[in-house]
TrEMBL record, chain A:
<dbReference type="Pfam" id="PF00266">
    <property type="entry name" value="Aminotran_5"/>
</dbReference>
<dbReference type="Pfam" id="PF21478">
    <property type="entry name" value="GcvP2_C"/>
</dbReference>
<dbReference type="InterPro" id="IPR015421">
    <property type="entry name" value="PyrdxlP-dep_Trfase_major"/>
</dbReference>
<protein>
    <recommendedName>
        <fullName>glycine dehydrogenase (aminomethyl-transferring)</fullName>
        <ecNumber>1.4.4.2</ecNumber>
    </recommendedName>
</protein>
<feature type="region of interest" description="Disordered">
    <location>
        <begin position="496"/>
        <end position="526"/>
    </location>
</feature>
<comment type="function">
    <text>The glycine cleavage system catalyzes the degradation of glycine. The P protein binds the alpha-amino group of glycine through its pyridoxal phosphate cofactor; CO(2) is released and the remaining methylamine moiety is then transferred to the lipoamide cofactor of the H protein.</text>
</comment>
<dbReference type="InterPro" id="IPR049316">
    <property type="entry name" value="GDC-P_C"/>
</dbReference>
<feature type="domain" description="Glycine dehydrogenase C-terminal">
    <location>
        <begin position="380"/>
        <end position="477"/>
    </location>
</feature>
<dbReference type="InterPro" id="IPR020581">
    <property type="entry name" value="GDC_P"/>
</dbReference>
TrEMBL record, chain B:
<dbReference type="InterPro" id="IPR049315">
    <property type="entry name" value="GDC-P_N"/>
</dbReference>
<keyword id="KW-0560">Oxidoreductase</keyword>
<dbReference type="Pfam" id="PF02347">
    <property type="entry name" value="GDC-P"/>
</dbReference>
<dbReference type="GO" id="GO:0004375">
    <property type="term" value="F:glycine dehydrogenase (decarboxylating) activity"/>
</dbReference>
<comment type="function">
    <text>The glycine cleavage system catalyzes the degradation of glycine. The P protein binds the alpha-amino group of glycine through its pyridoxal phosphate cofactor; CO(2) is released and the remaining methylamine moiety is then transferred to the lipoamide cofactor of the H protein.</text>
</comment>
<feature type="domain" description="Glycine cleavage system P-protein N-terminal">
    <location>
        <begin position="1"/>
        <end position="405"/>
    </location>
</feature>
<protein>
    <recommendedName>
        <fullName>Probable glycine dehydrogenase (decarboxylating) subunit 1</fullName>
        <ecNumber>1.4.4.2</ecNumber>
    </recommendedName>
</protein>
<dbReference type="InterPro" id="IPR015421">
    <property type="entry name" value="PyrdxlP-dep_Trfase_major"/>
</dbReference>
<dbReference type="InterPro" id="IPR015424">
    <property type="entry name" value="PyrdxlP-dep_Trfase"/>
</dbReference>
């Protein structure tokens, strides 16, 4: 039910299909219905105190705004309540296990937030004189040092703003390197288990995408790659550890074949958190890899972003890193912003973004790295892998694994064959987890596995937390097998919303609030 | 290590449950000769130690709040109400992921729906997406979208477009097979965009206020573009300007992109920021990025979901409209909260205060001997010509405790004819004392 500005319902409440008694407001104790800002705000209200400027002569030419913006405001207490109530309709890693495979939802230390808000970090402009930002440039250099040591690579491009933007950066470097050799290679090989961003990135810059079939366990066979190699192949984009939670055992052989064909090896680094301190991608033959700082080094993703996607480059690609970049200088690191400042041999392919990248994320990631140290980052990877295998061991007798029961990396992949004959769908199973207080795992990805369920517990979870999670899933599996179909099909019952009609949303998209027709408001005021 | 919950006893018990003897057994798939044994990096540091290390780095920078500050050209120092930073740090917002499970992410989804509505109203457009990385990447996405819509491959970039935005478009678009015609940077605002539009043009990209601060009348450019079947992409780097000047949608723009950092977000040395992207309803299926839509749940109650995902790469793979798979969710949240606090009344007033401060500063600076103002009209940013090298003068002003603006040579290096130009921004944070300090310091330096 929504309310008009007098707090009256603007549409009739629909009959609840749940067995809970209805309330007048639609609220359910702490679960409070919150109208849209546009329904409760007023056009003459503002929650910001500013004095009108004293007399001055405007210099807007003839472009002064003719019509008001049509945006309501709220006072400060109203704003606080609106957004606190909305926040309470969100699941978060601070409230519980968030086992989204390949997304890596781990603890976000608040120390990192505090560091990002230091005045000399958060309150510094990207175009201030360089003489006033020496600390910022040194911070970027220090972050780069950590990333290069952990990956065994030659140089780093810090500016990409997200993982997919990092992919784009790496593939643009590869395209530039190929052009610099005077070659025209137009094919990129992408395994069928890859993230959708990989083929989208390659296609965006004009490559033709050719799919590499996977083995039954989701890994890539060197023979499958070799069969597709030709003088037209520019690169392979391989995720390692892959999206089935497995380390690509034949990665070195694949890299060698790629290089022998004159092509480049792009590694999707989304799952780097499994191998930090355990293996260096430089040793595997990788030429470029983005690192999702928000995943591996825990910067908050805030409901969808921001991210940060620095790209580490091999010696073969180092010269092509985009502007701006940090170079070691005689008196400390130097920020190189323009082609005029280049040294011989530096041939950047261009610029990815207006400024220097996600400094706010750089400082959070560095704070995380300093906190863990060389010993801690390795321990974190080990614990992440330990936790995923512990979940695997706790569920392997009840849930089916497409790769068979073998050791996994930081995430464990199940499929839905264990639900066969129960009438419970993968989606139903996920929604039932919500009623148990869990965010569901990643569903229907990777696409190569039917009814995939990808669980990534991360190193943040204690043994007690995992034991309860395992017990909960075991209970759900047994209830599904016992025929408690309605429990699943009706789920979620206890969330702020029951299942939402996604088809309707896509068929007639309603992407912004529209003022109700006058007769609707009049009827509501009756 | 304080972030890791396991004791060694826990670890041993878990290894036993798994049925392996040691943690190394779990890494057996990594060939032995590729295993790393130790990193050449410092050991773990306690909380106090990390604070000291980063505090030292922070102290080596001059913060915008500590001095009279007039640096702009794409990012702006504004006051952010305390409520904004408090609310975005609530756990349920800060530590939530992409809203893939709508039943338990209605908070994020309703915020995105409100954000989309606010952006549509601000820009005067029909639909907006749930944000992009920043203004510069939103601009290149707009160019690529125009190519898809018009099936043409030539973009015309105005000389008033921020040079870094131009560089982003010039880096990516040609790799996608496009031609980019960049008009020369023209601080005198006499560039002739109209003459560059022809039947091959897919889009014209015009920034207003321009990087030099000029307000550009978009209507004649839109008319000429539409005449030949091209689209007008309007760009802004200072969203506060929309509180006072005619929205691009009302001037005929087809796609409007811009930087939203000014509302709710910190400077942060360039990121994270929030890209704004709006267009007409009929183009919605060619839009890049995330979209949140309204629907109903199984009980008929209003709710929100991510929608039109058939445009996106997790469904469409190499046929997706864009490879972008994230948005600036938290920055968009900060934007929305700050905008909610402002409302149209507050935004208009904030814009008037910005404009008034800039007008006063421009008048004072241009009254100095040898200093001239290049702009007829401007919002909160303008360009002055100095009697000498602007970058050198800015450095001398740093010594006098004033951060004076962006020398054009920082954005357009190697162009001697632009070396005496300075782009100056003034916002609501500048006081009478700040302006007086700037004018006095510049006067001394030029004396």
């Amino acid at each position: 039910m929504s309310m008009n500005s007098q707090g009256r319902p603007t549409v009739a409440a629909t009959a609840a299909t749940s067995d809970l008694p209805d309330t007048f407001t639609g609220n359910r104790a702490l679960q409070i219905e919150e109208a849209l800002l546009f329904e409760v705000g007023r056009h003459d209200v503002t929650g910001v105190d500013l004095d009108e400027p004293a007399d001055f002569k405007p210099r807007l030419g003839k472009l002064a705004r003719q019509q008001p913006i049509d945006l309501p405001g709220l006072s400060e207490p109203e704003t606080m309540r609106h957004y606190v109530r909305l926040s309470q309709k969100n699941y978060s890693i601070d409230s519980g296990l968030y086992p989204l495979g390949s997304c890596t939802m781990k603890h976000n230390p608040r120390l990192n937030e505090k560091m990002a808000r230091l005045p000399g970090i958060g309150d510094v402009h990207p175009l201030q004189p360089l003489s006033t930002v020496g600390g910022a440039v040194e911070l970027m250099a220090e972050l780069g040092r950590w990333l290069l040591e952990m990956t065994g690579m030659t140089s780093v491009a810090l500016s990409p703003k997200a993982g997919a933007h990092g992919e784009l950066c790496g593939m643009m470097a590869i395209k530039a390197a190929i052009a610099a050799k005077g070659e025209t290679r137009n094919i990129v090989l992408v395994p069928e288990s890859a993230h959708g961003t990989n083929p989208a990135t390659a296609a965006l810059i004009g490559f033709k995408v050719v799919t590499v079939p996977a083995r039954p366990d989701g890994t890539v066979a060197p023979e499958a790659v070799k069969a597709l190699l030709s003088p037209d192949v520019a690169a392979i984009m391989l995720t390692n550890p892959n999206t089935c939670g497995l380390f690509e055992r034949d990665v070195v052989e694949i890299a060698a074949a790629i290089h022998a064909a004159g092509a480049y090896f792009y590694c999707d680094g989304a799952n780097f958190n499994a191998i930090v301190g355990k293996a260096k991608v430089g040793d595997l033959g990788v030429d470029a890899m983005h690192i999702n700082l928000h995943k591996t080094f825990s910067t908050p993703h805030g409901g969808g972003g921001p991210g940060a996607g620095p790209v580490v480059l091999s010696e073969r690609l180092a010269a092509f890193a985009p502007l701006p970049f940090v170079r070691a200088g005689e008196d400390g690191p130097v920020l190189v912003e323009s082609e005029e400042a280049l040294l011989p041999g530096e041939t950047p392919f261009g610029r990815m973004t207006a400024f220097h990248g996600q400094m706010g994320m750089f400082v959070r990631a560095l704070s995380y790295m300093l906190s863990h140290g060389s010993d801690g980052v390795q321990q974190a990877s080990e614990d992440a892998v330990l936790n995923a295998n512990y979940v695997r061991a706790g569920l392997r007798d009840l849930m089916s694994q497409p790769s068979g029961d073998r050791t996994c990396m930081h995430e464990v992949l199940f499929d839905d064959t264990f639900l066969e004959g129960t009438g419970v769908s993968t989606l139903d199973f996920a929604k039932a987890m919500i009623d148990e207080g869990y965010h569901p795992m990643t569903m229907y990805f990777p696409l190569v596995v039917h009814g995939a369920m990808l669980i990534e517990p991360t190193e943040s979870e204690s043994k007690a937390s995992l034991d309860l999670f395992i017990a909960t899933l075991r209970d759900l599996v047994m209830r599904a097998k016992a025929g408690e179909l309605e429990r699943f099909q009706q789920a979620p019952r206890y969330a702020p919303r029951r299942r939402l009609d996604e088809t309707r949303a896509a068929r007639s998209p309603k992407l912004k609030w529209e003022k109700p027709e006058p007769w609707v408001e009049a009827a509501a005021a009756e | 290590m304080r972030y890791l919950p396991h004791s060694d006893v826990d670890r041993q018990a878990m290894l036993a449950s798994i049925g392996v003897g040691s943690i190394d057994d779990l890494f057996a798939d990594i060939p032995k000769d590729l295993r790393v044994h130790g990193l050449d990096l410092p050991k773990a540091a306690g909380e106090m130690s990390v604070e000291r290390t980063l505090g030292r780095l922070s102290a080596r920078n001059v913060s915008a709040s500590s001095v009279p500050f007039f640096v702009g050209a794409g990012a702006y120092k504004h006051h952010v109400p305390a409520t904004v930073d408090h609310l975005i740090q609530r756990s349920e917002f800060l530590t939530s992921y992409t809203p893939y499970q709508p039943e338990i992410t209605q908070g994020t989804l309703q915020v995105l729906f409100e954000f989309q509505t606010q952006i549509a109203h601000l820009t005067g457009m029909e639909v907006a997406n749930a944000s992009m990385y920043d203004g510069s990447t939103a601009t290149v996405e707009a160019v690529l979208m125009a190519h898809r819509l018009t099936k043409r491959k030539k973009a015309v970039l105005s000389g008033g477009l921020h040079p870094h935005y131009r560089a982003v478009v010039e880096s990516l678009s040609p790799m996608a097979g496009d031609t980019v015609l960049s008009l020369p940077a023209d601080p005198g605002a006499t560039e002739d965009i109209l003459a560059s539009i022809d039947a091959d043009t897919s889009c014209v990209v015009v920034q207003s206020p321009s990087v030099f601060g000029h307000l550009i009348d978009l209507a004649p450019i839109a008319a000429k573009a539409h005449e030949v079947g091209a689209l007008l992409i309007a760009v802004f780097t200072e969203v506060v300007s929309l509180g006072l000047i005619e929205p691009p949608g009302a001037q005929g723009a087809d796609i409007v992109v811009g930087e939203g950092q000014s509302i709710g977000n910190a400077l942060s040395f360039g990121g994270p920021y929030v890209g704004l992207f709006a267009t007409r309803q009929k183009f919605v299926r060619q839009m890049p990025g995330r979209l949140c839509g309204e629907t109903v749940d199984a009980e008929g109650r209003r709710g929100f979901v991510l929608t039109l995902s058939t445009r996106e790469q997790h469904i469409r793979r190499d046929k997706a409209t864009s490879n972008i798979c994230t948005n600036s969710g938290l920055c968009a949240l900060a934007f929305t909260i700050h905008m909610t606090l402002l409302g149209q009344t507050g935004l208009a007033r904030l814009a008037r205060v910005n404009h008034a401060n800039a007008v006063k500063l421009a008048e004072s600076l241009s009254a100095l001997p040898g200093v001239s103002l290049l702009n007829d009209s401007f919002f909160n940013e303008f360009t002055i010509r100095l009697p000498g090298n602007a970058a050198d003068i800015v450095e001398k002003l740093v010594d006098k405790g004033v951060l004076a603006g962006v020398p054009v040579s920082r954005l357009e290096p190697g162009k001697a004819e632009l070396a005496d130009l300075l782009i100056v921004a003034s916002t609501e944070v500048n006081t009478d004392d700040d302006r007086a300090a700037f004018v006095a310091a510049l006067s001394e330096v030029l004396a």
